[in-house]
């Protein structure tokens, strides 16, 4: 939902694409109906003016998407999200653990005062690796959720078809004649993605680690499964919500760059320029477009991912160290 709000703010039109002119006739009189603008001028009446179409908020997006595109469109891009989540988490979480353990061991010996900053650095580096590796699928997911099709009943393109469209989009620009060079468009907006995800991970882990450790210390049995699940989900929820809110302007800039269809502009845009444009067009409100659904999604998702990962680690550790029975 936040993508629709952000894309609308960037200028993506969301008129009712399924509205068409329709004439109802009977044996006595031909009457013209407008959906939303038709040919009343043919009958000597002023033409209908189209009703302004605009998403007014998160709940309004839900209502209009269901009404105009169908209930199932709320899950548009789910396949891409799942295809993105598995490799991203598979790279991100283990790399974070490896980097954090190595850095904490090093700082504890050589620079104890730097140890509190280890989660921030480890999270940033791990997120950068995961982001660069899986970015094309993230680009496809954003485009699939931001745009809606123009014909009702048509099958929407999937991840592969969306990426093919990014690579082989028609262009009259002579500078983009090389098919091989067009593959760089699969990483369009990568800088904006890193500009969002690296600070998100930094804020998230810098908040999550002390909250998690504090909650575990407060529990009666730190090593119990219930304590691990509760502490990790709670810490992840708080950290994800805070990180989602603070990095919302960067998320808006990332979305605007990823949905840019001018291929030359897509390559020349920078995150700083995009943020300036957003500020110029909408001020502080524009920078925080879609912040409510973003926070509502980021908090639970971080809590679920972190708690599930830690529970799996707990189960594998206990299984490995169980005493062998004769």
How would you describe this protein?
The radius of gyration is 25 Å and the shape is globular. The relative contact order is 0.11. The protein contains 11 helices and 2 strands; from the N terminus they run H-E-E-H-H-H-H-H-H-H-H-H-H. A hairpin with a 4-residue loop joins strand 1 and strand 2. Helix 3 (78-110) packs antiparallel against helix 4 (118-146) and helix 4 (118-146) crosses helix 6 (190-218). It has helices spanning 2-9, 58-69, 78-110, 118-146, 159-167, 190-218, 225-246, 248-258, 263-268, 271-287, 291-320, and strands at 22-25, 30-33.
Structural class: mainly alpha
Q: Give the fraction of residues assigned to helices.
A: 55-70%
H-E order = HEEHHHHHHHHHH
Helix tally equals 11
Measured by DSSP, the beta-strand proportion falls in under 5%
Spatial arrangement of strands, main beta sheet: 1-2
How far apart are the first and last residues' alpha carbons, in Å? Answer: 57 Å
Radius of gyration: 25 Å
Q: Kindly state the mean pLDDT as a whole number?
A: 76
Given as residue ranges, the uncertain stretches (5+ residues, pLDDT < 50) are: 17-52, 171-177
Question: Mind describing the biggest β-sheet?
Answer: 2 strands, antiparallel
How would you sum up the global shape?
globular
Give descriptors for this structure:
2% strand; globular; 63% helix; two-stranded antiparallel sheet; single chain; mainly alpha
